[in-house]
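#struct-queue
[09:14] JT: dropping the first one here, sequence first, then the structure tokens:
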Amino acid sequence: MHHTTEKNNASVTITITVLPEEYQHHLEKAAKRISDRSAIRGFRKGKAPFDIIKKEVGDMAILEEALESIVHEFYYTAVLEEKLDVVGMPKIDVKKIAPANELEFSATVALFPSVSVANPDTITVKKRSVSVDPSQIDKTLAALRGMRAKEAAKSGPAAKDDAIVIDMAMTVDNVPIEGGQANDYRVYLNEDHYIPGFNDQLLGLEKGSTKEFSLTFPDTHYQKQLAGKKVAFIVTAKEVFDRELPELTDEFAKTLGQESAQKLRERIEQNIFEEEQKKANDAAEIEILEKMIDASSFGEIPDILIDAEREKMMFELRRDLERHNVSIDQYLGDIKKKEKDLFEEFKERAVRRVKASLLSRQIAQEQNFTVEDAELQSELAALKDIYKDNAEYRDRLKRPEVKDTIAIQLQNKKVMAWLKAKILGEDMMDDPNLSKMGCKDCNDENHDHTHGDSHGHANTPPSA
């Protein structure tokens, strides 16, 4: 076999010539496959010798049967010899094919773009400090008490601590919103509603009374056709309930598994702190990634990567809509767009996501971050335990492509831990590939980098 390559920024074309003696073994295997599915006179299926099969079906039929496996072997041999970093399936063009002659074909395939990783020491990100406001604890305690409230129907106007059951209809520009009608919709007036100001509009309503008002949906609402829109409401109160909340006593705390009201408050404070800490961490990671993308440089990104990411985004959209019982057709109708329009709009974000993936992949290669099989098996075992009652999910974990995805996720975590150590000065995770990486302000390799707060980097929960 000999081959030549011709590269451009985003792809490479390999022209490969294979001699007859080099592809002979593929012909023999192809003849066997033909014999297995065809009746050769005088022989049982699969038992006819090569020469008989060749005489029966012809040289060309055997060569055509063998073509795919020939191309597969010698294409990948050329890729390995050239050390090409290819992505996706190649486009094959057979140029010469004749029995007992050289076989020539070309393969054009996309290349992973080059990535020049920015120096993380030049990136500045400050993670938000975390604290817990006492009002957050009070709000959670009120919600817990509300879950155990005793309710009784009342005849007077709805007050702040009441519950109200309504029928509701929503319109935009006098056009009813599909799925925007609800009957027997229960609202707890002392809790936050996803539409700001909604609960306030219900205060003072009595059983049987009707009210019309308008509110603006949040810009972040999951239904993009309603996000930021002014929506008109017609609500009718069907029932108003007075709610008697239990007192916050030690006995009440014990019903929630805590020793006392004080211990309950401390547990809530800890939970809120951890939740806020996670939000701050997530926000910092996003900012780190965005700034690293902006500061790094990328070669031409092939369409195959962008389109694959757009397909993934479309799948994610469908899944999110299904969770809210909204079909893709309904969604497209509401926003007055076709699926191809949406697919095109995804391009800018898809490019950004592809760059994030390429950046993480490049850093992993440069820093030699790998995922050992023991790490992958440990993660799979943990996921199987979490989803022990979901047989379908557990079956998916057996698929090679799912395992590959999980391995990439684990590798991405190592990359992010390294970036955070460099940019935020945080501790490295307990990983043999990372444990010798120092903190941003610490160059002592002998220092214990599994430390807690010796450099003042660790966030500690508030004291009770």
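[09:21] JT: and here's the second one, same format:
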Amino acid sequence: MTAVASSAPTGSRQGGGGRRGPGVVVIGVVVAIVVAVVVLALLAPAQRNDGPPLDPTSTGAQGTKAAVEVAGRLGAEVEVSSELPGDDVDVAIAFEDLVAPDREAALRDWIAAGHTFVMADPASPLTPPATLGQGDTFQDSTTVDRGRCDVVEPAGVAALTDLESFGPVYRFDVPPDATGCFSDRNGAVVVVERIGRGLLVSVGSPWLFTNEALDQADNAGLFAALAVPERGTRLAVLTAGPDGTGLQPDDNSSLSLPTGVTLALLQLLVAFVVYALYRARRLGRPVPEDPPVEIAGSELTRAVGGLMEHAGARDRAAASLRRAARRRLASAYGLAAGSPPEVVVATTEARSGLDRDRLEQALYDHPVADDAALAVVARELDEVVAAALGGGRVPSAAAPSAAPVPAAPSTTAAPSAPPDPGDLP
């Protein structure tokens, strides 16, 4: 396809039906990019950090930054830490199990020294055995009634009435000498165990304390009772950290980009698509073109032969025929395509048993006297090739009195190859 240049005068382009200039297209591209930026800006949340779920610094729906801020407003000295709590910490809370197995004993010693540790991950080995509570799988949230409650410490837990979670809620088996709250016949959602002078509190779902759930039911009251029992409490909110800090490394291996970077990449994608559409715009109507003429091999052969006949190039025609015959024999006997005539003759004699003099007379180049001699050369080459490839024997062309012996049929014999381009006169 080619483009046709318009032959209309310049003045005709000024009308309403003329082709738009590149300036209009550039303006259209700029407008499209501006509109895309405005739409993305309106859809993007402002000042939002959608980090991993349960991340204390995440403002997303499943983050826990709201719980950290609530603790601060209740008068606690809050620290988000990736290290195990020290003696200067009163209460530590973990929304997911981050304690390395080899540091569990050290954590229990810290609890026994008079501190409180809240584990909100029911899969942690620090918590009692837990089973998934019964509920409607298709509901968006799960409501937990108070049920039985014999918890005395931390104070304030017994005063709560119900909880609501946007995730699964597990119920623990209450160990001996432990107390539970929000209990039914399947177990308790909150279990308090005394270890030495401290408390280990297990909560059946971390999703009670996410940003989207903290203001539901008594979720904030439960968090306040567990994490900030009094003003001035030194609270450590544990988060994932690098190896060697006592906490498991962050296993969130997925690529997470800030919202601004994501929007910038999306804008570049929109701009690229618009630019590609602009560059792909045709500047003229498609013009049909005649396909190239395909010439059959037989027609090409006849055409070359006619040219040679018209030029009287009998020697060149004979040389072309002999070269084609030598190529066929060399290919059949595994020789190189450009093997010398002597090698082809010797190999053909050894393989087929044909007379060497006849082979030399047929395959070696020598002058041709007239058209009749050229026809004899062509016929002799066909017979020699057929006999050599078919394994039969035919009489020599020099002995016309002998009865011709038909050549044996051959499945490997192919029609004569078209002449080389170099044979054209």
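[09:30] RK: nice, looked through the second one.
[09:31] RK: The longest helix spans residues 22-43.
[09:31] JT: good to know. The two ends are 35 Å apart (CA to CA).
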